[in-house]
Write a structure and sequence with these properties.
The protein is an alpha/beta fold. 43% of the residues lie in helices and 16% in strands. Bound molecules: uracil. Uracil (URA) binds next to helix 9.
Length: 431
């Protein structure tokens, strides 16, 4: 005999009532073990999307998802654990240089990452373009890499927040991804279960992010920071720009290549700036005050950790990265200053080229994606290369080019006026 009926809980949320702790605990547990059907949970998710949840409900929903699986424990490590989570964007490869950088400065980064879905890339897809690199590690292997290198990036095992895995797949096909209580609890249940002692959230906003409105992004950030702090994880959030792509590449191996440039002390200014800034925030949260992340990027210390981390997971840091079989250059249609670049259009074009997937489990092309030759603020001449498209499937060029239609505006910048774009860092949220 079950303690509650799913229909009563759905009706309560439909009628704008708060769910009790016991109702939330039961519905998450019953759904995870199959006693609540997908169609019932779909109705409840839609009621939550439409009618919302208060902070107590969100916190309890998060705890129930954490309790559906195991919680990792790194208390045996000699260094403090600290992680970063980005809500995802186009060209967002920051985790790749950031994890070894923070490790080089004395933190331990236990980063459980995901694969990409839709127009945003996934960290694991990017790293899997490195020949030999393995995303799946046992808990013992994860601990060994973390102890040896100070950072590990790998796939979350099936035992971590299994309720979220089922719920996320259901939300994806029932148009219920975009609810703040559901996004916040989904992200934070995994990060809290991962066992990190501190967390910096990079909440993206702008056309290329799934919270395009900065106010909504800040609201999501506040809820997530509250959830982290209530669970005893030192948490802060930065709301950052995703109106234009980050860096000069979007696509798996292309982004690994750009991350290696950053680890070699070069790379695009926006990627370097955000990497160093996030590293400073992470180190500050765990009380490491004497480290200089900008120096650790320049002097090769972060690169040393990267090489060890890739090698420890079976990868060859010296192997040539895979390249796509075909390339197509798109040239500027006029001369002037690049005024805008639509991150969403660039992300969708990279996805059409084979860098992303439309269904879970689909393979991605390691070499597919887009190189960007000029960003907003840069001068460009008529006929000069603006984008290079990369793919193994040249029939994809047409759809990718269609997606890029009107993605860039080139024109004259009148005296005294500035490029109309979001600042890289929009807001810092600490409670
Ligand atoms: N990422 C997650 O893990 N969950 C969401 O709901 C959205 C983004």
């Amino acid at each position: 005999m079950e303690a509650f009926s799913a229909a009563q809980i759905i009706a309560a949320k439909r009628d704008h009532h708060s769910l009790t702790d016991a109702q939330i605990d039961w519905v998450i547990d019953a759904y995870t073990r199959g006693a609540v059907a997908d169609e019932q949970m779909s109705a409840l998710l839609m009621a939550i999307l439409l009618n919302g949840m208060d902070l107590r409900e969100i916190s309890r929903w998060t705890d129930a998802m954490i309790n559906s699986g195991q919680r990792m424990n790194w208390s045996g490590l000699s260094r403090p654990t600290v992680d970063k989570h980005s809500t995802g964007g186009v060209g967002d490869k920051i985790t790749l240089p950031l994890a070894p950088l923070v490790a080089a400065c004395g933190g331990a980064v236990p980063q459980l990452s995901g694969r990409g879905l839709g127009h945003t890339g996934g960290t694991l897809d990017k790293l899997e373009s490195i020949p030999g690199w393995r995303a799946s590690l046992s808990n013992e292997e994860m601990l060994a890499v973390l102890e040896e290198c100070g950072a590990v990036i790998c796939a979350a095992g099936a035992g971590l927040a299994p309720a979220d895995k089922k719920l996320y797949a259901l939300r994806d096909v029932t148009a219920t991804v975009e609810a703040i209580p559901l996004i916040a609890s989904s992200i934070m249940s995994k990060k809290i279960a991962e066992g990190t002692s501190a967390l910096v959230l990079d909440v993206k906003t702008g056309v290329g992010a799934f919270m395009s409105d900065p106010k909504k992004a800040a609201e999501l950030a506040h809820v997530m920071v509250g959830l982290g702090q209530r669970a005893g994880v030192k948490t802060i959030a930065l709301v950052t720009a995703m109106d234009i792509p980050l860096g000069l590449t979007a696509g798996n191996a292309l982004e690994v290549g750009e991350s290696i440039e950053v680890l070699q002390g070069g790379g695009p200014a926006d990627v370097v700036e955000l990497t160093v800034l996030l590293a400073r925030e992470m180190l500050e949260l765990v009380g490491i005050k004497d480290a200089d992340p900008a120096r650790a990027l320049k002097n090769g210390k972060a690169m040393d950790i990267w090489r060890r981390m890739i090698t420890a997971q079976g990868g060859d840091p010296d192997a040539k990265l895979p390249a796509a079989k075909e390339r197509l250059t798109i040239n500027a249609h006029s001369s002037g200053t690049v005024l805008t670049m639509d991150a969403m259009k660039v992300g969708i074009a990279a996805w059409h080229l084979g860098a992303g997937r439309s269904r879970q489990g689909e393979a991605v092309q390691a070499g597919a994606g887009i190189e960007i030759h000029a960003k907003p603020g840069d001068l460009i001449s008529h006929g000069a290369a603006l984008f290079t498209l990369h793919t193994d499937t040249p029939e994809a060029f047409e759809r990718a080019q269609e997606s890029l239609t009107d993605s860039v505006k080139i024109g004259g910048l009148s005296a005294g006026s500035a490029i109309d774009r979001l600042p890289l860092i929009i807001e810092r949220i600490t409670d």
